[in-house]
Amino acid sequence: VGLILVFTPAICSTFLCVILFPALGRDDTFMVIGPSEPIVAMLGADAVLPCHVSPAMSVENMELRWFRSQFSEAVYVYQDGMEQVAEQLVDFKGQAELVKDYITEGRVGVRIYSFRASDNGMYKCFFKKDSDFEEASLELKVIGLGSGPLILMVGPEGGGIRVICTGKGWFPQPEVQWKDERGEEIPSISEDETQDDDGLFQMEASLIVTDSTKGKVSCSMKNPFLGEEQVETISIPEPFFPRTSPWKAAFGVTLPILGTLLGAVLFLVWRERQEKKRAWQAEKEKEKESKAKESLKAELDWRKANLYAAAVSLAPDTAHPNLILSQSRRQVSCIENVPQNCDIPMYQGQGSSETICSVLGQEHFTTGRHYWEVEVNMGTEGRPGTRWAVGVCSDTVKRQGWFIEKPEKNFWVVACNEGKIEALTSKSESLSLKQHPHRIGVFLDWEAGDLSFYNMIDGSHIYSFTEITFCGNLCPYFSLQGPGTSVTIC
């Protein structure tokens, strides 16, 4: 028996649609869609990597997978209605879970806990139903706003003052920028970055400030993705800038001219004289290099005395009864043995009670720039119960009974508590210094709202209170505690 099929155009069309193309018209086809914008997450925070299907349908019985660049690098796997941990990367075990509140509508996501810098990058979500599968890409931006910037004044170099800006704990690598007080950008002379074991960036940028009229510079570190930045500013008083040698400049200009104009005989005479000068200059330069710190200190002593030096003395009527003032009113020290029944004002700071015995300077400042130096002595360094503090305060502050040396109470002070140096800000910042300060320079710039402290032993910067709005009269402020502790105005 034979069967003969005769195809008409209409029959052929129907045959092709039903027999040759059975997939057309199926209701189980779908697309996987991820977020169109990068997902932003802070270091240590949690976030969800979402994906959904279109058209909307339940994905409860599908295989769902989130992975990195390779299919085998599974962040999370969901199959047969439960989590599958066998294929999951070790770093994500116990750190990822499925968000399935809307799984019947085809909207799911993976929540990842405590993001690390290594989690930054591209991800893919993969959905499979029977033999059909689709995937979508999504990008995760991990952001770490680190600490800093912190500006340190290193010392004289290249006819100016070298300052460095440091910061750590940033991700991704931040943009570092120096600016002067007019907001104009200043290029760094060097910029180094390193990454720690967690992948976080540590930055260090250097700058040499050569213009004493631009003594205030700021360093900013900005996250390149969010655009958020942190800024720190430092003021460098003019006395810290080394004087340039006019002899060097004149020599550099006149040497080519003399070499062209002088005759052979005069040139020999000139060369002999120049050799003597060079030998003398080389000896002087060698001496300067070996004693750079001493030279800077001598320069400061001369410049500050002519520019901003303030003749500070102590006001006896402001002194605590437990303090002894010298006849010159330039030195104050503690009474060795304080009677047990003496009425002593108490200072409660950092969870403990301490005796504060203070005295003010005789001078009142309401404008201008002023500079003075003090020598501090604590006997045995770090001895329990010893403390000193220097700075400025308003002449209206409360200094009887219990009081706090903080900016919100109109005190701007740097202190040494049992050998630990700290700036008494709102949260009391502990300062890490290369050398313990025994001679401290205090520079007050009223109009700029700046109060800076310097270690005059090595010329380094200790701390600066900036952008202060002063009001009323300011007085030099000194407080000390413990036997053997004294402060001397230089």
Automatic annotation (TrEMBL):
<dbReference type="GO" id="GO:0009897">
    <property type="term" value="C:external side of plasma membrane"/>
</dbReference>
<keyword id="KW-0812">Transmembrane</keyword>
<keyword id="KW-0393">Immunoglobulin domain</keyword>
<dbReference type="InterPro" id="IPR001870">
    <property type="entry name" value="B30.2/SPRY"/>
</dbReference>
<feature type="domain" description="B30.2/SPRY">
    <location>
        <begin position="292"/>
        <end position="490"/>
    </location>
</feature>
<keyword id="KW-0863">Zinc-finger</keyword>
<dbReference type="Pfam" id="PF22705">
    <property type="entry name" value="C2-set_3"/>
</dbReference>
<dbReference type="InterPro" id="IPR013106">
    <property type="entry name" value="Ig_V-set"/>
</dbReference>
<feature type="domain" description="Ig-like">
    <location>
        <begin position="22"/>
        <end position="141"/>
    </location>
</feature>
<feature type="domain" description="Ig-like">
    <location>
        <begin position="157"/>
        <end position="235"/>
    </location>
</feature>
<dbReference type="InterPro" id="IPR050504">
    <property type="entry name" value="IgSF_BTN/MOG"/>
</dbReference>
<keyword id="KW-0732">Signal</keyword>
<dbReference type="InterPro" id="IPR013320">
    <property type="entry name" value="ConA-like_dom_sf"/>
</dbReference>
<dbReference type="InterPro" id="IPR003599">
    <property type="entry name" value="Ig_sub"/>
</dbReference>
<protein>
    <recommendedName>
        <fullName>Butyrophilin subfamily 1 member A1</fullName>
    </recommendedName>
</protein>
<dbReference type="InterPro" id="IPR006574">
    <property type="entry name" value="PRY"/>
</dbReference>
<feature type="transmembrane region" description="Helical">
    <location>
        <begin position="249"/>
        <end position="270"/>
    </location>
</feature>
<keyword id="KW-0862">Zinc</keyword>
<dbReference type="InterPro" id="IPR007110">
    <property type="entry name" value="Ig-like_dom"/>
</dbReference>
<dbReference type="InterPro" id="IPR043136">
    <property type="entry name" value="B30.2/SPRY_sf"/>
</dbReference>
<dbReference type="GO" id="GO:0005102">
    <property type="term" value="F:signaling receptor binding"/>
</dbReference>
<dbReference type="GO" id="GO:0001817">
    <property type="term" value="P:regulation of cytokine production"/>
</dbReference>
<dbReference type="InterPro" id="IPR003877">
    <property type="entry name" value="SPRY_dom"/>
</dbReference>
<dbReference type="InterPro" id="IPR003879">
    <property type="entry name" value="Butyrophylin_SPRY"/>
</dbReference>
<dbReference type="InterPro" id="IPR013783">
    <property type="entry name" value="Ig-like_fold"/>
</dbReference>
<keyword id="KW-0479">Metal-binding</keyword>
<dbReference type="Pfam" id="PF00622">
    <property type="entry name" value="SPRY"/>
</dbReference>
<dbReference type="GO" id="GO:0050852">
    <property type="term" value="P:T cell receptor signaling pathway"/>
</dbReference>
<keyword id="KW-1133">Transmembrane helix</keyword>
<keyword id="KW-0472">Membrane</keyword>
<dbReference type="GO" id="GO:0008270">
    <property type="term" value="F:zinc ion binding"/>
</dbReference>
<dbReference type="GO" id="GO:0005737">
    <property type="term" value="C:cytoplasm"/>
</dbReference>
<dbReference type="Pfam" id="PF07686">
    <property type="entry name" value="V-set"/>
</dbReference>
<dbReference type="InterPro" id="IPR036179">
    <property type="entry name" value="Ig-like_dom_sf"/>
</dbReference>
<dbReference type="InterPro" id="IPR053896">
    <property type="entry name" value="BTN3A2-like_Ig-C"/>
</dbReference>
<comment type="similarity">
    <text>Belongs to the immunoglobulin superfamily. BTN/MOG family.</text>
</comment>
